[in-house]
Amino acid sequence: MSDEQKELDQLSINTLRFLAVDGVEKAKAGHPGAPLGCAPIAYLLFHKLMKHDPADPKWIDRDRFVLSNGHASMLLYGALHLSGYNLPMEQLEQFRQWGSETPGHPERGDTPGVEVTTGPLGQGFGMAVGMAAAEKHMAAIYNRDGHAVVDHHTFVLCGDGDLMEGVSHEAASLAGTLGLGKLIVLYDDNLISLDGPTELSFTEDETLRFEAYHWQVLSVADGNDLAAIEDAIKAGMADTTRPTLIRVRTVIGYGSPKAGTNKVHGEAMGPEATKATKRNLGWPEDKSFYVPEEARKNWEKAKPKGKKLHEEWDAGFAEYKKAYPEPAAQFERVVEGRLADGWEKAIPSFPSGPDAKAVATRNAGNVVINAIANAVPELFGGAADISASTKTNFKDSPSFHVDATGRNIYFGVREFGMMTTVNGMAAHGGLIPFGSTFFIFSDYCRPAIRIGSLMKVHSLYVFTHDSVGLGEDGPTHQPIEQLMSLRAMPDLTDFRPADANETAACWRLALERTGPCFMALSRQDLPVLDAAAAFAGVPKGAYSRTPEVTKADVILIATGSEVVTCLKASAELKTAGIVAKVVSMPSFRVFDEQTAAYKAELLPEGVPKISLEAGATLGWYKYIGTSGVAIGIDRFGASAPGPIALEKLGISVANVVETAKKLVGKL
Ligand SMILES: Cc1ncc(C[n+]2csc(CCOP(=O)(O)OP(=O)(O)O)c2C)c(N)n1
């Protein structure tokens, strides 16, 4: 390589370094250390190796880049700005300020080119595994001989913190098992984390660890050696059967007076140290947010290069479309995130009435998933080693592990890893992914559910065994506070259907909505209620199950398995001369979105209200008012057959009847 080219590379890398330093300095907050050490990696990826089109950050066949060490956000913002994404310099100058496109940590949706929200360490890594899995699955479904319309890599930059987090262990193990050959992780192996040297807390051999997961592991001894990093990345791309981890030995805070120490990890360096760093790296001390003309021109080569790559892909896709119109039309549809016309006709309904068989809502879910499988080919998912219990398997599809066209993912006992990869698949686009496990283990999934909700991606979190009604497994497995605590999460839609028909209606809504949803389904069989009422009522979030009641003495509001309990209580109350209206409320969020008039009509003021739900009562008062009574379970459960556990914990017809009588003053 010519000396001139080397100088230009160096200038371009230092431009990125100092945009990051100046951004942090101006905000007086942020993390300069990792950007100073990792700028060469980012330069190589964005400038030279990645297939991306800065003018169209949504191009479906772009390589994905995930900054798992999200605290290095200024590195990403700088690289996006310099490569020509629509992120002007004023935005870099507004780093971490209210309303800017450069939030403290990368946030999907805020910044063109930011793929996923990162910052909570380990999750970027996990989401990248999901993206690589999505790529592999879609390539298997859509590509034809000579037409590789899905063919891109997923690149990750991560740090020690990411690899310390348990979720990276889960996700890396899964990625190795799935043979995600197009996943390439660059590990900022700088021997420093927040508290100090990694020898304080992180001493295992990462090479052996990742080799044990069936990854290819490569090492680069000097994080400033562009040729060596490039060779390693190319070796990663050449190995198509295994994911690759590239350990890059960098120096945190490279060039700064505190280089190589944790002191440069996470705060603005201050004016003196900033000047010294600029001096050390031959940068003008008095300039900030400075982009030399040659560096600007060099970085911006990414634009025409990306345009050309994109045009080539467009031309290839046009050929593919001619040769294979059907998969091409489906591909375009799923990439747009549109459901197929008339897909909803595939949704089943279940017979109700006195002779109808009772159905557990988890089993109803299985019937629904399989009934819509052909109509919704983008639905893709699995369970954390309990598919026999969550009933989420597609009957006619192989395991994704064995055949990449397969729609069943065996996530293994890795709940957090599962949901973070689900988020990555949703963020990738072209699929509607789901993961499933027992509701109690939503706690293990929670950090991923939070990031999925923050990103507003279409991830579906399916939970079964939704109450103490699951029975003998006891309090370790009986959810109590999970429902209410997940309902507290912004932008997450809750579903707890009362029966098989509500389950079908909830699945319909979950697919039609574009954001994250969770579903809480029963282990135990539940009587099936009228289908028409469910399909009409569920889209309103709550509706009357006793339409014959026009003037109620008391309103009973319930979700899930407790709706039938309330219907029975209402029948008993009738014999005592009390008119009880029963409201089924499968979704708080969907109900909250309804008009004030509908809400007032369904839950009129002045009528005493009782809620019944086999879980924490916190949160019910906004519907029942302070004079209402919330019957629920505010203690841990207990081992016993399900019906006994419910009865002993007060989730019974008798308790509702007595409470209602007291409330209306007839006891
Ligand atoms: C789950 C989680 N825990 C803690 C933190 C706070 N935190 C941010 S960076 C960091 C240290 C990360 O060390 P490393 O990955 O080596 O980054 P470097 O110091 O090299 O920039 C910690 C603990 C976080 N962001 N996420």
Question: What does it look like?
Answer:
By secondary structure, the chain is α/β, with parallel strands linked by helices. Helix 1 (3-27) crosses helix 2 (33-49), helix 1 (3-27) packs across helix 11 and helix 19 runs parallel beside helix 20 (531-537). The structure holds thiamine diphosphate (TPP). Residues 31, 33-34, 69, 71, 119-121, 159-162, 165, 188, 190, 192-194, 252, 265 line the site of thiamine diphosphate.
Number of DSSP strand runs: 18
Q: Please state the CA-atom Rg, rounded to the nearest Å.
A: 28 Å
Helix share of residues? 40-55%
Spatial separation of the terminal alpha carbons: 92 Å
Molecular shape: elongated
**Count of helical stretches:** 26
Class from secondary-structure proportions: alpha/beta
**Taking all residues together, what is the mean pLDDT?**
98
List the helices and strands and how they pair.
Elements: H1 3-27, H2 33-49, E1 64-67, H3 73-83, H4 89-93, H5 123-142, E2 154-158, H6 160-164, H7 166-178, E3 183-188, H8 206-212, E4 216-220, H9 226-238, E5 244-248, H10 271-280, H11 293-299, H12 302-323, H13 325-336, E6 359-360, H14 361-372, E7 379-383, H15 387-390, E8 408-410, H16 415-428, E9 432-438, H17 442-455, E10 460-464, H18 482-487, E11 493-495, H19 500-512, E12 517-521, E13 525-526, H20 531-537, E14 543-544, E15 554-558, H21 562-575, E16 580-584, H22 588-592, H23 596-602, E17 609-612, H24 621-624, E18 629-631, H25 642-648, H26 653-663
Helix pairs in contact: 1-2, 1-3, 1-11, 2-3, 2-9, 5-7, 5-16, 7-16, 12-13, 14-19, 16-17, 19-20, 21-26
